[in-house]
Amino acid sequence: MKRTGLFFVCLMVSALLSAQEVESFVHRQMETYPQSRLLDIYKSCFQDYMGAEHLVSDRQKVKAYLDEELETTSIDALMPWYYEPCGIDGHYVRVSLKAVKENLVTEELLLDAFIRSANSMERPSVESWKGQWHEIIGIIDRMDLHLPDYAEDKASLDSILSLGKYAISHSAEYREAYRPHYRIVERGIFEREIKPLLESRLMIVRIAEIEVFPQHLEAYLKAARTVGAESVRKEPGVICIFPNQVKADENKIRIVEIYRNKEAYEHHLTTEHFQTYKQGTLHMVKSLQLVDLQPLDEKAMPQLFKKVW
């Protein structure tokens, strides 16, 4: 009896976690893309589950379509991100054409990754996806989101699935608001071949959240000011190291750090002035947390820093 009861509790916890994951994804979707309809939530979920919408048999045709999309899409029209995970589990990743437009990855690499992702994975059956969506929509129903045309979209999706189909386009509202231009890449391929290129060339922006022991506060503040000034003065790849105190608690320090790319950051860690700071303040620091950030508009940063003075 105890074993049966324990098994039942485990099932209930598993279901609860599943519901929490769905709810967390939906909330992220609506916070990031408030113009989304149920169709757009569905699309991200089936991309996560099924991958690309079709097998790719004609490489030249797919390349021609990508060429045209790159030629007719301006960088300013693209979303600020370079990639984002699909759906609830992120088995697949949306890679924005922004990465190609800004020469972070080549068109050929993205094309090849997309084609291999579409062709190499064993595609789940539409029937299995239908069952998965049934679970997801049951949770979404209980969330009572008040999405526009919710009942109409839900009925339309049921009709598509009943015909043994699953692929749809983004809603007109989503396309108008966000102009999505991306390719779906399997997560393993993305992490091995594309993500390292993006991370090696992308700007690193973070906030170091530090708490200092009160008896060492003055010594720490002096060390933080020194390393910030020397880093910006001596290192071309350091754009900003800007220490601040929290007004409500002077022992809490927040350092805004901006590095031109990963290489610049890694070089910074080897410099004499950073090592002097790091080794000299180890005993002063009670806690340290590094919070990585994603700039919404890197192109605006040169103008922003120019206007400081």
Structure description:
With 309 residues, the protein is α+β, with helices and mostly antiparallel strands. The chain contains 13 helices and seven strands. It has helices spanning 2-32, 38-50, 59-72, 98-101, 107-120, 126-143, 150-162, 172-178, 187-201, 217-234, 262-270, 272-281, 301-306, and strands at residues 83-85, 92-96, 182-186, 204-212, 238-246, 249-259, 285-293. The strands form two sheets. Strands 5-6-4-7 form a four-stranded antiparallel β-sheet. A three-stranded antiparallel β-sheet has the order 1-2-3. Helix 1 (2-32) packs across helix 6 (126-143) and helix 10 packs antiparallel against helix 12 (272-281). The N and C termini lie far apart (73 Å). The model is unreliable at 1-17 (pLDDT under 50).
- Indicate the radius of gyration in whole angstroms: 24 Å
Unreliable stretches: 1-17
Contiguous helical run count: 13
- What helical percentage do the residues reach? 55-70%
Q: How many DSSP E strands?
A: 7
Side by side, the strands of the main sheet go 5-6-4-7
Globular, elongated, flat, extended or rod-shaped: what is the shape? elongated
**Mean pLDDT over all positions:** 89
Largest sheet: 4 strands, antiparallel
From the helix content, strand content and strand pairing, which structural class follows?
alpha+beta
Would you list the SSEs in sequence order as H and E? HHHEEHHHHHEHEHEEHHEH
What separation lies between the terminal Cα atoms? 73 Å
Indicate the proportion of strand residues. Answer: 15-25%
